[in-house]
Amino acid sequence: xxxxxxxxxxxxxxxxxxxxxxxxxxxxxxxxxxxxxxxxxxxxxxxxxxxxxxxxxxxxxxxxxxxxxxxxxxxxxxxxxxxxxxxxxxxxxxxxxxxxxxxxxxxxxxxxxxxxxxxxxxxxxxxxxxxxxxxxxxxxxxxxxxxxxxxxxxxxxxxxxxxxxxxxxxxxxxxxxxxxxxxxxxxxxxxxxxxxxxxxxxxxxxxxxxxxxxxxxxxxxxxxxxxxxxxxxxxxxxxxxxxxxxxxxxxxxxxxxxxxxxxxxxxxxxxxxxxxxxxxxxxxxxxxxxxxxxxxxxxxxxxxxxxxxxxxxxxxxxxxxxxxxxxxxxxxxxx
Length: 335
Fold this sequence. Notes:
Blueprint: H1 20-32, H2 38-56, H3 59-71, H4 85-90, H5 93-103, H6 119-127, E1 153-158, E2 163-170, H7 179-190, H8 197-204, E3 209-218, E4 223-231, H9 233-252, H10 257-275, H11 278-292, H12 298-306, H13 310-320, E5 327-333
Parallel strand pairs: 1-5
Antiparallel strand pairs: 2-4, 2-5, 3-4
Helix pairs in contact: 7-13, 8-9, 9-13, 10-12
């Protein structure tokens, strides 16, 4: 399930060390000196329009985005960053220039380098752009928005060949002290491992679904937990009941010592492997510094996970998984 970065724009390049200066020049050119020629905008609109049409043929992305729109109603997180053909046609060259001048500014940006390049070389290269004139703008990165959440149950007919469903509710923000507990609970319930509880109970035991997962996406001032499934229509009701049954177990039954240790070990291993991806590490560092003044290293996160007790997981499960607050969105094949 795609989790889109709705709060930050990232421009990055992967190059050999010898081309570092050229990469910086290109990135700064894109960020600060884009001119958006009208003939290029026309070409790009056609490309994006094609992407929107392709997106419409991807039910797992459709249902995820629509669910977020409903869940975060009246909050900026509800906005689908891809847009639609109508909004695409209304964006003018002056709109783009205005947007970049208001948002792409050194006061709002962090420059991160991952690789064997000395800090002196990085600073020396960046200093070449310090003479440029930038408008004086306020940093609005930490503005918070509240919204009123109302649980919903929506069923829609679709032209897709099978049924799709997503259930979820608001969750901890990315600074909440219990976010690590929910992260571990989510990985145990429906994470990427083949031994997740949803995979074992719905896919392996009954063969109801091939795609079954859960996800936890924290943002600055909000978050979302969800479970997603695609299957034949005749298996959907039973599958949702089984998902609810597995969530209920997390609320009622404390993990044993071996289960807890295995869950921590698996999540820690996944985080370490993800950290091997340099692009992911680059974005993690930049995001942490930009939003909170520092980026936690992977060892700090693993330490927080390893400190979790079975009692803390049980508490987080009962606080997070209120069945009265769950929302549901179903796509059913047209009959």
